[in-house]
């Protein structure tokens, strides 16, 4: 029993990549050719925030490298330095700065230069975007703030609780202040926050926040706020087949068993094998969540085989809203390519003996 | 969702569940009941757990502390001042002089700003200003001044620290908004004191009950009845025991030797052997057992009372300690000085030995009956050891609460004040020619009482000369690690047992603790089982007037014991009735008596916490009105139907009915541990039969506050629950709603605390949702073998970046600017001038909170002055400034000489030496707030708090306390 289960999880078609080791250069070339031939990308879903595509014919290491780069090495803009001029809100400066940093900023990182860390770096219009936030909750004279007033985000509270009202500060209160020639340079895509309705803080009457947030270009491995994606993940395409057919009543039970609706019934007509008439078939293997429900008990125990296709990745990229998911993917590939190039250069430099690299 | 713990307790396997706990007889009866299966369909009271919030509303979470304090300031303090030994002050120097206290009051909390002005304070101000939250105690007096009789009201004799949320506290009964105005957290339970700015709790102390007979085996294997007598004047312990298995003796510290018990009886006037035998019991077996003791006096040649007294008089230890500090020491002598050994023996017997049995005008009758009863029980137990009392049985325990401890202290201090006053009066009155007539009121020194209270609460050392009481660690600083730690501390019970003793008896869980004491919440290690926690609904009683109950007993047909002969007392048809350990009388129809008394209680005619318990084996009825008993509410059932109806529940929720009314009309009643023995308590409605007298309100009330936070505790291995109880208190989270303003010396505040996704009912009851601790983590559980690690969590860096487990650490740094006796005072000084950089722009460079560039900071160039950068011109650091290790926060300077008094000359200013307060810490931080205020002495106080952010689990070293298990 246990043996069959392990069998059920073995991935398919792994043999190709196991034999890289002993290849000659020419042979590698053919392998790469082969890869190039085989590698396909098929986009399943695509909108401004999410992208799902099939990466077919690639190695797991390649897919994982791509995923890691998506998460941690594609640059984007985020608030890095916060100058606090006034903060009488309940939030501490640190917390406020942290919250501001996490707000996705809609600005193309390609328009900016990276900035070296450290005191030597000077902020200028090419590496810094400035956002201002000046929010205060001032009650007019004689106003208690407890009356009904639904404008400018003031929540009025129940008078019975005698609680003072609050004013919410949202991401939309962050205002871009162009520096130098930024106004003309970035005219076609004005920097702004990606989601205007992110709550930053709540103010009570008399409280004020006046801060200046300086955006920098950075990558997710420095801080998650730079990560252009919420998640980037992949899974292998499930492959389900029958060791022997599941027929009749049992087929119905199998269809019911699967919570994801992977199986369907195929009508064999009256004259089917054993006269059962119906047979279970795998209709939507993509939807399988590998929950093992079909092989745990019931008709499928020894007849259904769960496997995965080793070189078929269902990749999904969820953008935080600053960059379109396909753009993030392209950037990621670019980063990967650059890495490979610099690795090659380093190896070649090492081979020439000038020791320039060594960092590969 | 099914109620988490209800499932545990309502499962049908009740009997086995409980037999683990022990074999209280009602449980075995319960098992019988189940087999009989006479249960009939009963109307189900839906959601009776909804009573719980009403209980908490009525009694509050920490009500026992507050109740006991209220009792002290409203009633007991008056009793102490009006006690015969304290009420009047006379002087030997002038027989005409007297001072009489007529009344005493505790005023409103205030603080003395200086010698003349005192102003009202809020507890919050006291915390910030390092003051004591206390109120003046004032007395009304009549006294003689010269020839006049003067009546004065409101003479202050001292200050008493006020318990928060008690009736004297300004927070009592305030609404949430009013509390917020006073900067007080509405969820704060109160029940603690603020002394010199520190919150301190008087922990509940568990003790063996006073004035009760406990029959145990001493270390020689003798059966011994130990009686701890305690009255306002004296505490003592006597043992009546069977020596070497034959003769009965009395042992008391005051007597150098064990005295044969019959000699004691004879000394108390019971000269006839027949009378003694009648009293002890005249069955043949009793006679056999008692005979050797009865013969004892004749071997010693004692027949008469005088001989017996002489014998005892010779045995009295001649220590001066027993005599008190002599005639001048008011109220400290335990008994009057006697001239002869006989008289001394009589005094000792009357007021020292078994002093809780009152002896009026040397009428020893009641005491004789009491002693005979004890002898009888000792001899019976000697024959049948199964009648030994269990010391660990919770009905034999009393919890000493803040009010009781304070009243002991107050009486001691008040007596001391009177002694001082008397001394002054003696001095003042003995002066031969006075220009003014002596006014004793002017001599009252308030600091005796004030400092006495503050000292005791601030250090936790309770030192009372009268009782030779010297206890340490009575108070503890209220831990404010999290809200739950604070609640957990308020329900904690400390045991008097030494922690080093390796005994298991007092440590193990007693079946009688069911519903009173939380079975899970106890520390690990040496204090295991000795430190306990109250269960959610448990309540600790305060003293109740016993005199009305006594009268009521006679009205209900009790015969006065002093009028009965021994044969009548011991008749098998009669039950003895005890009131607080004293024999009141006999009753021939005990069941009817008990039923009537309970009926009256349920009708609200007798105080709700009076307990009545029928003991069939001892053929006695025990009535208790004393304080410190633990009790818990139960639903009253009649004929298998709870008196609580769905209608009442609806009225309760709509506010038409209150819980107090339900208690008054006997739907719900408080039952203490002893009375529980007479009850048959159903755990759920489905188990109710006609024989049941009560029903549990909800099984979750078995657990305490902290254990109540564990989801699905009945699915855990039991020590896991205990571990969680210890860890839950350390969880980081929100301390109080006013946490950022409290300026605690160290505050770990979680930036994004979350309400738990899996909650328990207790959790809602204690407002944990409003003051959460911890975060809900999404945990992936990995393979069992392979690349796994044990007992550890790998955290995702991105989630930490996004704020998971992030906390703020706020640390208080404070200094006070003192004024010295010679007129010199500490000073604040601005940062030293930097001539080099003075001209380079001092422009308003904004402070940066999160910055990599230090460029903006290079205003000053002189590196030696870098440490003064955070200072403002007044010498105090500015809010928002960055502090590095060694940065000066408060640039204080102190005069070099504080001893000599040359300030007045004005020749040259006293030289100062710098005594700055600097920041120490490996990681830089920022100034969060600065507070300048003055303490009680009028000294200026500068407090600042600095914060640093940290990631949970890495910096705090506390790790991650997980509310384990779950689904
Ligand atoms: S593993 Fe689960 S989802 Fe996949 S086919 Fe089986 S039952 Fe359906």
TrEMBL record, chain A:
It is found in: Nucleus. The keyword S-adenosyl-L-methionine does not apply. Keywords: DNA-directed RNA polymerase, Nucleus, Transcription. One of its GO terms (cellular component) is RNA polymerase I complex. SUPFAM superfamilies: Insert subdomain of RNA polymerase alpha subunit (SSF56553), RBP11-like subunits of RNA polymerase (SSF55257). One of its GO terms (biological process) is DNA-templated transcription. The keyword Nucleus applies. One of its GO terms (molecular function) is DNA binding. Gene3D superfamilies: DNA-directed RNA polymerase, insert domain (2.170.120.12), RNA polymerase, RBP11-like subunit (3.30.1360.10). Pfam families: RNA_pol_A_bac (PF01000), RNA_pol_L (PF01193). Residues 50-346 form the DNA-directed RNA polymerase RpoA/D/Rpb3-type domain. InterPro entries: DNA-dir_RNA_pol_30-40kDasu_CS (IPR001514), DNA-dir_RNA_pol_insert (IPR011262), DNA-dir_RNA_pol_RpoA/D/Rpb3 (IPR011263), RBP11-like (IPR036603), RNAP_Rpo3/Rpb3/RPAC1 (IPR022842), RNAPI/III_AC40 (IPR033901), RNApol_insert_sf (IPR036643), Rpo3/RPB3_RNA_Pol_subunit (IPR050518). Its main location: nucleus. PANTHER family: DNA-DIRECTED RNA POLYMERASE, DNA-DIRECTED RNA POLYMERASES I AND III SUBUNIT RPAC1. Belongs to the archaeal Rpo3/eukaryotic RPB3 RNA polymerase subunit family. HAMAP family: RNApol_arch_Rpo3. This is DNA-directed RNA polymerases I and III subunit RPAC1. It comes from Nannochloropsis salina CCMP1776. The lineage of its organism: Eukaryota, Sar, Stramenopiles, Ochrophyta, Eustigmatophyceae.
Automatic annotation (TrEMBL), chain B:
GO terms for biological process: DNA-templated transcription. Residues 210-400, 476-540, 577-638, 661-691 form the RNA polymerase Rpb2 domain. Residues 823-856 are annotated as: Disordered. One of its GO terms (cellular component) is DNA-directed RNA polymerase complex. Residues 60-451 form the RNA polymerase beta subunit protrusion domain. SUPFAM superfamilies: beta and beta-prime subunits of DNA dependent RNA-polymerase. Residues 706-942 form the DNA-directed RNA polymerase subunit 2 hybrid-binding domain. Its EC number is 2.7.7.6. This is DNA-directed RNA polymerase. GO terms for molecular function: DNA binding; DNA-directed RNA polymerase activity; ribonucleoside binding; zinc ion binding. It is an enzyme of class 2 (transferase). Belongs to the RNA polymerase beta chain family. Keywords: DNA-directed RNA polymerase, Metal-binding, Nucleotidyltransferase, Transcription, Transferase, Zinc, Zinc-finger.
């Amino acid at each position: 029993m246990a043996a069959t289960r392990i069998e059920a999880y073995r991935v398919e078609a792994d043999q190709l990549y196991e034999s890289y080791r002993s290849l000659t250069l020419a042979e590698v070339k053919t392998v790469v050719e082969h890869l190039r031939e085989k590698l396909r990308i098929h986009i399943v879903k695509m909108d401004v925030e999410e992208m799902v595509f099939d990466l077919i014919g690639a190695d797991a290491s390649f897919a994982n490298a791509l995923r890691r780069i998506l998460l941690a090495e594609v640059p984007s803009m985020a608030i890095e330095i916060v100058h606090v001029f006034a903060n009488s809100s309940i939030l501490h400066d640190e917390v406020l700065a942290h919250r501001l940093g996490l707000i996705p900023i809609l600005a193309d990182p390609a328009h900016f230069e990276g900035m070296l860390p450290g005191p030597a770096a000077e902020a200028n219009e090419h590496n810094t975007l400035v956002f201002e936030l000046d929010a205060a909750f001032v009650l007019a004279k004689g106003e208690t703030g407890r009356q009904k007033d639904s404008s400018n985000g003031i929540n009025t509270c129940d008078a019975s609780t005698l609680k003072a009202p609050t004013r919410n500060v949202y991401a939309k209160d962050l205002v871009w202040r162009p520096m130098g020639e930024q106004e003309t340079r970035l005219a076609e895509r004005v920097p702004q926050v990606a989601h205007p309705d992110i709550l930053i803080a709540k103010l009570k009457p008399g409280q004020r926040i006046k801060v200046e947030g300086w955006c920098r270009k950075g990558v997710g491995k420095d801080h998650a706020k730079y990560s252009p994606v919420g998640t980037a993940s992949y899974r292998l395409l499930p492959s389900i087949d029958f060791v022997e057919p599941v027929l009749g009543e049992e087929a119905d039970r199998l269809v019911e068993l699967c919570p994801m609706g992977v199986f369907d019934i195929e009508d064999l007509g009256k004259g089917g094998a054993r006269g059962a008439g119906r047979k279970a078939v795998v209709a939507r293997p993509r939807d399988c969540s590998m929950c093992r429900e079909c092989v745990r008990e019931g008709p499928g125990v020894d007849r259904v085989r769960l496997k995965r296709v080793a070189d078929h990745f269902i990749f999904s990229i969820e953008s935080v809203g600053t960059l379109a998911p396909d753009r993030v993917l392209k950037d990621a590939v670019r980063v990967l390519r650059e890495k490979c190039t610099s690795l090659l250069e380093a190896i070649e430099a090492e081979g020439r003996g000038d020791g320039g690299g060594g960092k590969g | 969702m099914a109620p988490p713990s209800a499932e545990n307790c309502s499962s049908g396997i009740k009997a086995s569940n409980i037999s683990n706990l022990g074999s209280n007889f009602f449980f075995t009866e319960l098992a019988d009941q189940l087999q009989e299966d006479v249960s009939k369909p009963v109307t189900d009271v839906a959601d009776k757990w909804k009573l719980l919030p009403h209980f908490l509303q009525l009694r509050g979470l920490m009500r026992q502390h507050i109740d006991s304090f209220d009792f002290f300031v409203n009633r007991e303090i008056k009793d102490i001042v009006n006690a015969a030994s304290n009420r009047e002050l006379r002087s030997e120097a002038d027989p005409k002089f007297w001072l009489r206290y007529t009344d005493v009051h505790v005023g409103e909390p205030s603080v003395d700003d200086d010698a003349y002005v005192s102003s009202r304070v809020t507890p919050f101000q006291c915390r910030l200003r390092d003051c004591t939250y206390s109120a003046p105690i004032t007395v009304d007096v009549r006294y003689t001044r010269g020839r006049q009789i003067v009546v004065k009201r409101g003479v202050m004799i001292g200050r008493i620290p006020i318990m928060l949320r008690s009736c004297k506290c300004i927070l009592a009964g305030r609404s949430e908004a009013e509390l917020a105005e006073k900067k007080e957290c509405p969820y704060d339970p109160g029940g603690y004191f603020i002394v010199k700015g520190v919150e301190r709790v008087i922990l509940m102390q568990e003790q063996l009950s006073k004035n009760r007979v406990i029959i145990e085996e001493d270390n020689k294997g003798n059966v011994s009845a130990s009686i701890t007598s305690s009255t306002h004047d004296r505490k003592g312990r006597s043992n009546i025991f069977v020596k070497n298995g034959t003769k009965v003796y009395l042992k008391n510290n005051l007597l150098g030797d064990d005295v044969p018990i019959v000699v004691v009886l004879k000394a108390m006037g019971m000269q006839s052997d027949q009378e003694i035998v009648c009293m002890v019991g005249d069955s043949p077996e009793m006679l056999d057992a008692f005979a050797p003791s009865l013969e004892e006096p004749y071997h010693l040649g004692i027949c008469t009372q005088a001989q017996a007294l002489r014998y005892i008089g010779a045995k009295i230890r001649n220590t001066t300690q027993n005599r008190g500090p002599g005639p001048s020491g008011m109220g400290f002598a335990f008994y009057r000085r006697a001239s002869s050994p006989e008289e001394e023996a009589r005094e000792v017997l009357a007021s020292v030995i078994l002093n809780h049995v009152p002896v009026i005008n040397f009428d020893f009758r009641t005491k004789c009956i009491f002693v005979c009863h004890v002898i009888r029980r000792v001899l019976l137990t000697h024959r049948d050891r199964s009648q030994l009392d269990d010391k660990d049985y919770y009905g034999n325990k009393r919890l000493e609460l803040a009010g009781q401890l304070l009243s002991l202290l107050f009486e001691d201090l008040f007596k001391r004040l009177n002694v001082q006053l008397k001394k002054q009066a003696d001095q003042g009155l003995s002066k031969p020619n006075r220009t003014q007539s002596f006014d004793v009121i002017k001599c009252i020194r308030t600091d005796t009482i004030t400092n006495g209270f503050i000292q005791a609460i601030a250090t936790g050392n309770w030192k009372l000369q009268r009782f030779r009481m010297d206890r340490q660690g009575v108070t503890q600083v209220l831990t404010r690690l999290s809200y739950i730690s604070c609640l957990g501390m308020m329900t904690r019970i400390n045991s008097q047992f030494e922690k080093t003793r390796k005994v298991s008896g007092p440590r193990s869980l007693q079946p009688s603790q069911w519903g009173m004491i939380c079975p899970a919440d106890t520390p690990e290690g040496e204090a295991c089982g000795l430190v306990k926690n109250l269960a959610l609904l448990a309540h600790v009683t305060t003293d109740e007037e016993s005199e009305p109950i006594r009268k009521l007993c006679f009205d209900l047909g009790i015969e006065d014991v002093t009028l009965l002969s021994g044969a009548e007392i011991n008749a098998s048809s009669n039950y003895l009735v005890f009131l607080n350990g004293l024999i009141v009388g006999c009753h021939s129809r005990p069941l009817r008596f008990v039923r009537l008394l309970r009926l009256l209680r349920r009708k609200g005619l007798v105080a709700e916490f009076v307990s009545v318990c029928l003991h069939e084996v001892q053929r006695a009825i025990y009535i208790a009105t004393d304080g410190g008993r633990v009790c818990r509410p139960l639903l009253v059932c009649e004929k298998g139907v709870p008196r609580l109806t769905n209608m009442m529940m609806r009225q309760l929720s709509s506010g038409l009915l209150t819980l107090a009314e339900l208690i008054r009309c006997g739907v719900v009643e408080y039952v203490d541990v002893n009375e529980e023995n007479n009850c048959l308590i159903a755990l759920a409605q489905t188990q109710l039969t006609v024989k049941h007298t009560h029903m549990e309100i909800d099984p979750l009330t078995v657990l305490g506050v902290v254990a109540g936070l564990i989801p699905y505790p009945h699915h855990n291995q039991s020590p896991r629950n205990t571990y969680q109880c210890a860890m839950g208190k350390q969880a980081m989270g929100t301390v109080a709603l006013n946490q950022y303003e409290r300026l605690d010396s160290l505050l770990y505040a979680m930036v994004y605390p979350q309400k738990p996704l899996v909650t328990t009912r207790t959790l809602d009851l204690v407002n944990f949702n409003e003051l959460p601790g911890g975060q809900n983590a999404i945990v992936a559980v990995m393979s069992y073998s392979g690349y796994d690690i044990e007992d550890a969590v790998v955290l995702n860096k991105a989630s930490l970046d996004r704020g998971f487990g992030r906390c703020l650490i706020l640390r208080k740094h404070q200094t006070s600017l003192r004024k010295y006796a010679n007129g010199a005072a500490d000073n604040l000084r601005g940062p030293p001038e930097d001539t080099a950089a003075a001209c380079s722009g001092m422009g308003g460079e904004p402070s940066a909170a999160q910055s990599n560039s230090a460029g903006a900071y290079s205003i000053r160039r002189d590196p030696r002055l870098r440490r003064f950068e955070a200072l403002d011109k007044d010498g105090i650091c500015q809010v928002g400034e960055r502090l590095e290790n060694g940065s000066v926060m408060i640039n204080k300077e102190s005069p070099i000489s504080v001893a000599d008094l040359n300030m007045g000359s004005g020749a040259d200013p006293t030289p100062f030496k710098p005594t700055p307060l600097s920041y120490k810490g490996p990681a830089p931080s920022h100034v969060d707030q600065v507070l300048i205020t003055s303490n009680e002495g009028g000294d200026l106080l500068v407090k600042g708090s600095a914060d640093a952010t940290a990631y949970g689990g890495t910096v705090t070293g506390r790790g991650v306390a997980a509310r384990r298990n779950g689904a």
